[in-house]
From TrEMBL:
Domain O-acyltransferase WSD1 C-terminal, residue spans: 309-453
Protein name: Diacylglycerol O-acyltransferase
Compositional bias per record (Low complexity), positions renumbered to this chain: 171-180
O-acyltransferase WSD1-like N-terminal domain ranges (all copies): 6-266
UniProt-listed SUPFAM superfamilies: CoA-dependent acyltransferases (SSF52777)
Coiled-coil annotated spans: none
One Pfam family of this chain: WS_DGAT_cat
InterPro entries: Acyl_transf_WS/DGAT, O-acyltransferase_WSD1-like, O-acyltransferase_WSD1_C, O-acyltransferase_WSD1_N
Family, as annotated: Belongs to the long-chain O-acyltransferase family.
Region (Disordered): 171-192
UniProt-listed Enzyme Commission number(s): 2.3.1.20
Length: 462
């Protein structure tokens, strides 16, 4: 893989980063040992290193370039050493003891601390940690990827190169040979023809017009004095805390079948209800304005997960925490998301990523911190869904039992929520500023309780 300029949105993510606001996303993958026991940690680290080394993107690092001014590019790291990116962290036996809740609470606390640390910018921007406890027990792999390196779908594609797919009895074996001979591509001139020139010009005009519309929407949607939840607007301490929640996928499906809409509508409603429950348990007054969620939308075409560059847009959604009726919360979320989808992911204030594609590299280099500080004027919390393949995954014969995605915190935000479906469960990773939300585990339990209550309320509807 040769030199490749960072796409505009990737460059924005690269320059948005600071020591207190690292711009990496992550995932905590938890594995259960098979009956015969898991391989030793040295064998697991060796396997992770071999798999990672075979992924060309993970051997690339970012360097500044002369042209375009303010730009940066991916270069192959000639001194690449996978051992710089892999670390084993052994949990003390007393921390992972069953009386303390077992392996997961200790691994989750440690993962939160590891997420605080920015990635080293002089190396390919990723890290993996093998987290293990007592021999013969479960273990976890924490993966950290800079957002300039991957969005959610590309992170999944990278994970597919690290982990193994468990073949089912009905699965068709992979063939090493291509299914069909590729068609020859006729030679093309590098000179664009008249029609191509016209098409490029028309596309550029459409892009600029779309960006102008998004900019106008941003001005209208901006809040100079947001009256949201105090905990979601607290100043940054640079610390990180992680909590996890698990929902039954069948619970989500039953609610969707009864109420209509989509599974994502249900999950967004559960997050809203969980926030309401958590605020009331803390003794807080409900905010004067419902908190706004930024809900990312992938613009990546199906089958193009490996394509370079982040391809994202987003919707803005008011989370109806002031509504006391779970059914009405669900209806409000469904109607708001229907309006967002009718307008499309390239319109409205949530499509702020569209503006990044239209800005020159120099603007990203010097304007990213200013834009980052303005994020709190637009939204209060990020809520993102990461699609996983339906197949079961494993590592060295150890089945993957859970995978908790983790999103980066934007400047001015104290919490981000990421959700993914694996097997029969919906796994939720909550990342927060450790000082602003020291009771993040309580919020995770509130989200789980809210899903059960929503099912109960929806089931009683005529």
């Amino acid at each position: 893989m040769g030199t490749e300029l960072l796409a505009p949105l990737d460059l924005a993510f690269w320059h948005l980063e600071s020591a207190a606001h690292p711009m990496h996303l992550g995932a905590l993958a938890v594995f259960a040992p098979p009956p015969g026991g898991a391989p030793g940690p040295d064998a697991l680290l060796g396997l992770l290193g071999a798999r990672a080394s075979a992924i060309p993107r993970l051997r690339m690092r970012v360097r500044d370039v002369l042209l375009p001014v303010g730009g940066a590019a991916w270069f192959a790291d000639k001194d690449f050493d996978v051992d710089r990116h892999l670390t084993r962290v052994r949990l003390p036996v007393e921390e992972a003891a069953p009386r303390d809740g077992g392996f997961m609470p200790a691994a989750t606390r440690l993962a939160g601390e590891l997420m605080e640390r920015p990635l080293r910018r002089g190396l390919p921007p990723w890290e993996m940690y093998l987290i293990d406890g007592p021999a013969g027990g479960p273990f976890a792999v924490l993966v950290k990827l800079h957002h300039a390196l991957a969005d959610g779908m590309r992170a999944v594609a990278i994970g597919a190169g690290i982990f193994d797919e468990i073949a089912s009895a009905t699965a068709r074996p992979r063939s090493a040979a291509p299914s069909a001979r590729p068609r020859p591509v006729p030679p093309r001139s590098w000179m664009p023809g008249p029609r191509q020139v016209a098409g490029l010009a028309l596309g550029r005009i459409e892009d600029l017009g779309r960006a102008f519309g998004v900019g106008a929407s941003l001005v209208r949607a901006g809040r100079l004095d947001p009256r949201g939840a105090p905990a979601l607007r607290a100043g940054s301490s640079g610390t990180r805390r992680l909590a996890t929640a698990d929902l039954g996928l069948e619970t989500v499906r039953r609610i969707r079948r009864i109420s209509g809409g989509t599974g994502n509508d249900v999950l967004l409603t559960v997050v809203a209800g969980g926030l309401r429950r958590w605020m009331l348990e803390r003794g807080e007054s409900l905010p004067g304005d419902d908190p706004r969620a930024l809900v990312p939308v992938s613009r990546r075409r199906p089958g193009r997960a490996a394509a370079t560059g982040n391809r994202l847009s987003a919707y803005l959604l008011g989370l109806p925490v002031s509504e006391g009726d779970p059914w009405e919360r669900l209806r409000a979320v469904r109607e708001a998301m229907d309006r967002n989808k009718a307008a499309g992911p390239l319109r409205g204030a949530g499509a702020v990523a569209v503006l990044a594609d239209q800005l020159p590299s120099l603007a990203h280099r010097f304007g990213a911190p200013l834009a980052g500080n303005a994020a709190r004027m637009l939204f209060d919390v990020l809520v993102t869904s990461v699609p996983l393949p339906r197949s079961r995954l494993s590592l060295a014969g150890c089945p993957l039992s859970a995978l908790y995605p983790m999103a980066p915190l934007a400047r001015g935000q104290s919490m981000a929520v990421a959700l993914t479906t694996y097997g029969s469960r919906v796994h939720i990773g909550l990342v927060a500023d450790g000082k602003a939300l020291p009771d993040l585990e309580r919020l995770a339990r509130c989200v789980e309780q809210e899903a059960a209550e929503l099912l109960s309320v929806v089931g009683e509807r005529p």
